Amino acid sequence: MTTRAAGDPGAGIETAIRRAVDPSRLLTGEDPATQQPDEARRWLELYAELLTVVAPILESLRSTMVGMSAQAVEELNDTELVLLERQVSRLRARLQYWGHRSQELAETISRRPSA
Question: What is the pTM of this model?
């Protein structure tokens, strides 16, 4: 990617692209080590919510590409499609993590002896 000056509007676009597809990026306030079941459920719900927006956009793009010219399909495959696929993959991975974490915390609480 081209390096841009901080005042260049393209710099914001490049940052947004990197953030959207970075598989290790966490959302603001997200703590993978939380011990709070409610917090884990909140992140699970948030990632599910994000996927309900982004996944249909990806599917719509794929279905729209059917029947398009080879050149248009090539362009979309090289740009929008790859970005959306990576973003959906990242969101699904975070959703899966929080699903496991939420279940793990619920099981830990259920194993605690009653007072």
Answer: 0.84
